[in-house]
């Protein structure tokens, strides 16, 4: 299957399966982003500080996915995405970081 065929098939999905696909992607990318932030900051992929903060991965998921859902993140991304939606996305990600900083 070519890339263009895959993208056209994804675009034809109903809104609910698209939202579920976005939630699944976030469930993968949020912990990856937490791990990469430790790796970049500490210059080692499995530093002792990271291993002591492993709880942050599930916490980021438990805070991040509902935050995105309740603020309309997935609704906006399953419709037309304009510049206003991108500004909201940046705000949501900023809020997620601010909520996680006190525990880091």
Structure notes:
This protein is mostly helical and 104 residues long. The protein contains 6 helices and no strands. It has one domain (14-103). Helices cover 78% and strands 0% of the residues. Helix 2 runs antiparallel to helix 4 (56-70) and helix 4 runs antiparallel to helix 6 (83-100).
Q: What's the Cα radius of gyration?
A: 16 Å
Count the beta strands: 0
Helical percentage: over 70%
End-to-end Cα distance, whole Å, is: 43 Å
The number of domains: 1
Short structural summary:
The chain is built from six helices and no strands.
Task: Pick out its properties.
0% strand, mainly alpha, 104 residues, 6 helices
Q: Helix and strand layout, with pairings?
A:
Layout: H1 3-11, H2 15-42, H3 48-52, H4 56-70, H5 73-78, H6 83-100
């Amino acid at each position: 299957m070519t890339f263009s065929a895959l993208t056209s098939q994804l675009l034809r999905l109903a809104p609910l399966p698209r939202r579920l696909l976005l939630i699944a992607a976030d469930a993968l990318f949020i912990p990856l982003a937490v791990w990469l932030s430790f790796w970049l900051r500490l210059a080692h992929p499995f530093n002792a500080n990271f291993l002591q903060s492993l709880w942050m991965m599930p916490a980021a998921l438990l805070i991040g996915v509902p935050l995105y859902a309740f603020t309309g993140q997935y609704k906006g991304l399953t419709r037309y995405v304009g510049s206003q939606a991108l500004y909201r996305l940046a705000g949501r990600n900023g809020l997620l970081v601010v909520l996680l900083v006190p525990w880091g």
